Automatic annotation (TrEMBL):
Swiss-Prot/TrEMBL catalytic activity: 4-hydroxy-4-methyl-2-oxoglutarate = 2 pyruvate; oxaloacetate + H(+) = pyruvate + CO2
Annotated keywords: Magnesium, Metal-binding
Subunit text: Homotrimer.
E.C. designation(s): 4.1.1.112, 4.1.3.17
Species, as recorded: Amycolatopsis taiwanensis
Entry protein name: Putative 4-hydroxy-4-methyl-2-oxoglutarate aldolase
Length: 214
């Protein structure tokens, strides 16, 4: 499925936390995935790639296979190698690829920031790679317990990453809008002085043991 431009901005505004909570799914990636440069954020269709540890040939094939609106989602075994850098960022950007999520390392983070190419990784590393195994491109992968399939919707920001199943996208999008609207009404009540205990109806859950001297 293609993602309309207005949806892209709306998804980023809603944010990964709201999308995850509204989804009702375990669709978040491990917290070890972090933006390689401050301010990175991306929305796009997943193109899964599996690479051998310390070998980035599969990522070059991934650049060729992906296109406008896609995000490369790579299983690099979590290894701290520099699988990706400025050269590959330029090549990917020229093809309309929106970003990279990799369980592994990247380098040239300052240059990637200057390009405005969003990258999320589990390591920053200058360690070199070999180019021997072409890997897999487009086949489902599992990243730290999460299955990622081609066409899933990837949303990544400074809080984290969600991978939304394509078949569930419309439902999650609508549920996220509703959640955001509800939370805004809660914000109004909080600004007026109500407590979170009352706004979220937490009082029936019990009261803490308090220091009687205070």
């Amino acid at each position: 499925m293609s993602i309309p431009d207005q949806d892209t901005q709306e998804l980023l505004t809603l944010g990964t936390a709201t999308l995850y909570e509204a989804s009702g799914l375990d669709c978040f990636l491990d917290a070890a995935f972090r933006p390689a440069w401050d301010g990175a954020q991306v929305v796009g269709r997943a193109v899964p790639v599996s690479a051998q540890i310390g070998d980035n040939l599969a990522l070059h094939h991934g650049i060729e296979a992906a296109g406008p609106g896609d995000v490369l989602v790579v299983d690099g075994g979590g290894a701290p190698f520099g699988y990706w850098g400025e050269v590959m960022g330029v090549a990917a950007q020229a093809r309309g690829i929106r970003g990279l999520v990799i369980d592994g390392g990247v380098r040239d983070t300052q240059q990637l920031a200057a390009l405005g190419f969003p990258v999320f990784s589990t390591a920053i590393s200058i360690r070199g790679t070999i180019k021997q195994w072409p890997g897999t491109v487009g086949l489902a992968i599992t990243l730290r317990g999460r299955v990622v399939r081609r066409g899933d919707i990837v949303v990544a920001d400074r809080d984290g990453i969600v991978v939304l199943p394509a078949a569930e996208y419309d439902r999650i999008h609508d549920a996220s809008r509703s959640r955001a609207e509800k939370e805004e009404s809660f914000m109004d009540r909080l600004r007026s002085g109500e407590t979170t205990l009352d706004v979220y109806d937490f009082r029936p859950l019990g009261s803490p043991i308090r220091d009687p001297a205070r």
